[in-house]
Input
Amino acid sequence: MSADQHSRPSHDVPTALPDCLSGPILITGAGVSGVGCAKLVRMLGVEMAIADDNPASAEVIAELGAEALTTAHARERITEFSCVITSPGWRPDSPVLVDATSANIPVLGDVEVAYLVDRAELLGPRRTWLAITGTNGKTTTTAMLAEMMQRHNPASAAVGNIGTAIPDALLATPRVEVLVAELSSFQLHWTHEFTPDCGCVLNLAEDHIDWHGSFAHYGADKARILRGAINVLGVDDEHVRAMEPQAAGRTVGFTLAEPEPGQVGVAEGWIVDRAFVPESESSGPGIRIRPIEGISPAGRAGQLDALAATAMARSQSVAPADIAAALDSFGVAAHRGQVVHQVHEAAGTITVIDNSKATNPHAADAALKGFSSILWVAGGQLKGADVSEVIRTHGERMVAAALLGVDAPLIAEHLGSLYPQLPVFVSTSTDKYEAMAEIAAFAREHAVAGVDVILAPAAASLDMYSGMGERGDIFAEAMRAAFGTSGGGDV
Output
């Protein structure tokens, strides 16, 4: 079967909106997601109210033509509404959502509402939905795929947790025809009919268990993305492989191994498509796309993201040359494996990599794979996560470790237990600049040619920093100050 035969099905008759959107509608929160949904509801011409306890939101709510309610008042009037539209930041155990569920009032998320409006063709012909989720790598994969799709169809855009909010994308001028959506488990939790043309699960590891209640529930919410005709799965991940029976349509695996028929993988150093090829060639070597080396971000995680994006692009008949060109030009987003400094010495290069986005052990594990000589910079809030497996897996390739933040002593304890000869520095400073300067001074002392200094914290940042972005920025600044140019410089 050719790639063209795997493109999205045609739709002859628009589907009417469900009765629950007939109004009046309650929207929880007047943030970016809530405002976007309110604009869609206003277009439907139905009454709406927005529940938000922040007095500063009153003006925004009034401009939207909605009634402003406190959450307490919303709970008192919950039976007046045909449905509740919630933002992904609202937990399922939020009282207003619990009350709605108890009263058998549907609760929809922003993705679901946008999808229902699009499916009903209220804003023109239905769009193509390409949706990506996973514990790690969502943003990079989405950005890669958006670049590929824009070469194939310029009316493509990255949306969701990257780029434009989905409701805003539906209302955008010029029209967005292909929605390349990064979706969180929070957003997927509130979907019921959402069916992307191609859905992808990259990987799965324990995360947000406090929100979902268990790893099983977290995985079940991720699996909601697998309702479409084509489902792309990261088959190198055992938890994702186990999702295959839940996929509604055809499954396509992506792997760093040599691909089997029906997969996208790596053969003889090249990305190879053996999934979207003519049926007469299904047993052949497949279609070569580009070399696997030289992809940004460097390392195994970036390569897997590229394979996933390639599989999804091929499902939409994107030409191999367009995929290769997109990967050639792609630059990794900040704090996601970005090379922030290099020092070129006679014996080789010291490379400094900012992966501040690696805020849990699973992400840190992915960030450290593919590097042979690592000076690990880590620490922050572990939030109860077990970091020992990351250390056990990568410790033999570490030349030293530099730690900061509230759980630095716990990480140091694991390092000392598993690799007692490894030089380890623990900053005791609670000043975000001073602590990182101490880390950088230690790194300068212990890094030699050929070493990659990698910030892959395995922990959240809010014990010391305003977020992972600030942590990464201060890391980069401190490393540049400590290392200087030494014959090289920033990249």
